[in-house]
Amino acid sequence: MNVLNEEFIEELIMNTLYRKKLIVLAIVATFTSQFSFGQVPQSVSKKNQVLSQITIRGEKIAAPNVDGESKTGSASILSDTASLLENIPGMSLYKAGGLSSLPSLHGLADDRLRIQVDGMNLISACANHMNPPLSYIDPSNVGSIQVLNGIAPVSSGGDSIGGTIKVNSSAPVFANEDQGNILKGQAGVFFRSNSHARGANVNANYATPSFSLNYSGAVAKADNYLAAKSFKLNGLSALGSVTSGREVGSSAYQSENHALGFAIRGSDQLLELKLGLQDIPLQGFPNQRMDMTRNRSEQINLHYRQQLEWGNVDARIYHEHTQHRMNFSDDKQYWYGNAPGMPMETAGHNTGAVLKANWVLSERDKLILGSELQRYRMNDWWNASGTGMMMAPNTFINIKDGERNRLALFAEWEAQWSPAWFSQLGVRSERVRMDSGAVAGYNNMAYGDPTSTTSIPGIFNHSDRQRNDNNIDVSAVFRFAPDSNFSVDGGYAYKTRSPNLYERYTWANSNTMVMNMNNWFGDGNGYVGNLQLKPEIAQTLSATIHWQNFVESGIEFKFAPFYTRVRDYIDAVACSSIGKICAARKDGFVNVSLSNQQAELFGIDLSFEKTLAQSRDFGKIHAKGGINYVRGENTQTHTGLYNIMPLNAKFSLQQQIDRWTNTLEWQVVNAKSHVSEIRRELNTSGYALVNLRASYDFQQGRIDFGVENLTNRFYSLPLGGAYLGQGATMGMGVPHGTTVPGVGRSMYVSGTWKF
């Protein structure tokens, strides 16, 4: 691929978005002039949607008519969008800040998943990954979520090995031809007793048959939450701040989200412009040595779709700018000698464009062709603090002028061979180009002269830092559905992911304090990157057997085994194994680097639903359940992979009568003992939780209330990492061996009103 052509395309898009942002309005006007505002077809005009409903689909392949799970009202009691995924088979969550959980699909998480928000491929701009993609959309603004496992179609995004999660805000609302103009919306509030979490949200729409205007806004705030019992000593916190033995330090948060959407449609065209703004003044992290003290994100997202005689064209261009700041919140020690805190700044610029064309070649065949471009720039620097040798007098340059650019071409062929047989074959070619600038420590005496050829920063600065990865993805899936009651999905995928900027370009290995700051795992250890990392390559086999018979027996059952083998899996290793000498430490944690290893993951997902009874007196009673198991192992060291969810199950009994829905839920999690030894990952004990929920629907809204962890059971989060929520987190004051506990008993109530 010609690099000059690639750079020309990147600069063209950047210029388009940056020229005072006025060019965006020009694009809207240009497209608008091409629209025909005549009569809207009946099939298009039925756009009004129930705003409180979220549709979540867990798909194995992109086959037609895949059933989804409808979740009504669940977003009204949540602050963390990732929590909407908890009932998806094979899905678990890395619990971090109250707004920033990381989804894990079949043991693969974070950058190993392709996560799209309204079609934008967002990137975490933080050395601790405190601002993951799903944190950029409030749960109340989510309209649909689509989850595709490791054999996700190549058109759904590359540069990932663990699958794709697509989150979309509510679709534009248009008026019917006989309605004229409409003004509608909803407002909601919620409260949770544990942590005194409270929030409010509003969604308003003004629409005509051809024009739609939407505003969505949400605010949320919470204090530290309490575990079911004491898990630490009282008062061990920051200077001047005291916490009880039950209080989980640095778990408070505050957030504000705004989204403004415009949409115009014609008889066969749709144009959308979405503007987003997020401001998080505080989000504590109980499993990190730092906290988020500011995160501001601005988003521009322009989407165009046109239906043609031979198929359709779908185009998108977007830009997202993040300003991220970390320091110590109230629960963590702020002063170290004469140094007031440790300010850390990150700025990220993420620009992307996607173009897809769908050709209907025949009644049987469909061809999808497309191209994708992503241009990412990031700077990560830490301003001087105090006058001591450790954090002064200069600015610490962690990553300077980091670049990560992706350019991809893909093609997919879908064939409906018969009413029973469907197949899909896809191939994707992707070039990932990465680079970074020269770095420097706080001072030359403690960190080395950055111009020298023998110091740690000097060796990095004199090395060749540009990397070009030519990656290939292949997917082959099928579906056999002889009737509406039975289907078998299966497939194979070959997926590739290049390292992120932090994995390749973090450089400081002689200072424990600095290494602690580069930790996107929540395990309390210190990390340094590796310029020699190669892309991960995963081969996945997966199948799903789906049987249902709602008419006669009211039952549904899914059985889904999977196997993934990863070549060049990026895992933690001893620094000495890759020729680095890292600072020694005596606090129980470790300083490590990263290297390519070999790994495998396998497991099974089981889920069922059964109608037990239905009568006039008791309504409809049905049971639901799911069992998830995944085992991940580094086959080179024969130890466990980090943060693998142990065997777990969830069962519920639900009653629906008149306007009431009542649910009793039982969640069981096995002990975790197969852990990553190099990271000194902590074991956790098994536990069982009981949740009780109820909701009442009425014409103008809905009320939800219930109790989480009804029996006030104490438990440790299997994927919560090490507890670092308070005290001298940058020194020796945080003992190794304490896990992050889960939330104790919490009552909640929320209300949603439509207008």
TrEMBL record:
Its main location: membrane. It is found in: Cell outer membrane. It is a multi-pass membrane protein. Residues 252-710 form the TonB-dependent receptor-like beta-barrel domain. It comes from the Bacteria. Residues 79-164 form the TonB-dependent receptor plug domain. The keyword Repressor does not apply. Keywords: Cell outer membrane, Membrane, Receptor, TonB box, Transmembrane, Transmembrane beta strand, Transport. Pfam families: Plug (PF07715), TonB_dep_Rec_b-barrel (PF00593). SUPFAM superfamilies: Porins. InterPro entries: Beta-barrel_TonB (IPR000531), Beta-barrel_TonB_sf (IPR036942), Plug_dom (IPR012910), Plug_dom_sf (IPR037066), TonB-dep_rcpt-like (IPR039426). Belongs to the TonB-dependent receptor family. This is TonB-dependent receptor domain-containing protein. It comes from Undibacterium danionis.
